[in-house]
């Protein structure tokens, strides 16, 4: 596709790639694929004038992709999470999310950190640590929801659905196991960066308008 467009002699060519495939395979480990490097090399061969991405999993994707621009997106100031929505706190699911979540929250709510252990051979999660939370309404935030095991493990440590109410925000909603495992969440907020899967408790923000405005500012 990039080659066909290039033959039309455009002034410039931009790839809008909000969800970067392979972004979670962002480290070298013996016997596993450094997937982000593979995808980056493929993207770079197309020689785009700019590549616009959204909320990359780590700093590795922007470092490997040529001419990359990270599109700013604040779920609190967008129409996604309503300004009238009040929470007793926001939860970081793991250490990797802490910087991202603190930037989003920016002092609006108390931030609580959780942790977990992952078996790198099997992917199985265990050893969830969650802070003591007073009864109330809380928001868990992260960049990606694949199967949702991390978020389910966190909420399972608060067994009373009456005392602890949870919402979930993820920029990139894969939802590979559907929404049944995520039934504990009252509302799930996400963007249309990856999927158009919808459930009754899912609210989706369209990125088309934001991407158009941001990209025009780069030209």
3D structure, described in words:
It is a single chain. The protein is an alpha/beta fold and 219 residues long. 21% of the residues lie in helices and 27% in strands. It is built from 6 helices and 11 strands. The strands form 3 sheets. The protein has a 6-stranded parallel beta sheet with strand order 5-4-8-9-10-11, with helices on one face. The chain has a 3-stranded parallel beta sheet with strand order 1-2-3, covered by helices on one side. A two-stranded antiparallel sheet has the order 6-7. Strand 6 and strand 7 form a beta hairpin. It is globular. The model has no long low-confidence stretch (mean pLDDT 88).
Quick summary:
The chain has 219 residues and is α/β, with parallel strands linked by helices. Helix content is 21%, strand content 27%.
Helical residue percent?
10-25%
Measured by DSSP, the beta-strand proportion falls in 25-35%
- Number of E-type strands: 11
| SSE arrangement, N to C | HEHEHEEHEEEEHEEEH
């Amino acid at each position: 596709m990039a080659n066909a467009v290039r033959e039309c002699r455009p002034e410039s060519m931009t790839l809008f790639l909000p969800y970067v495939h392979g972004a979670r395979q962002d480290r070298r480990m013996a016997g596993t694929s450094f997937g982000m490097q593979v995808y980056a090399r493929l993207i770079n061969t197309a020689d785009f004038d700019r590549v616009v991405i959204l909320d990359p999993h780590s700093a590795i994707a922007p470092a490997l992709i040529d001419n990359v621009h990270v599109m700013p997106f604040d779920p609190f100031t967008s129409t996604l999470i309503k300004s009238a929505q009040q929470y007793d706190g926001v939860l970081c699911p793991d250490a990797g999310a802490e910087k991202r979540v603190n930037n989003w929250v920016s002092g609006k709510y108390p931030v609580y950190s959780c942790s977990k252990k992952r078996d790198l051979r099997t992917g199985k999660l265990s050893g969830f640590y969650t802070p003591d939370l007073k009864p109330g309404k809380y928001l868990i935030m992260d960049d990606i929801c694949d199967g949702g095991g991390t978020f389910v493990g966190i909420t399972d440590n608060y067994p009373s659905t009456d005392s602890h109410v949870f919402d979930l925000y993820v920029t990139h909603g894969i939802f590979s196991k559907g929404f049944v495992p995520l039934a504990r969440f009252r509302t799930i907020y996400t963007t249309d960066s990856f999927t158009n899967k919808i459930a009754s408790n899912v609210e989706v923000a369209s990125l088309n308008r934001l991407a158009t405005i941001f990209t025009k500012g780069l030209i």
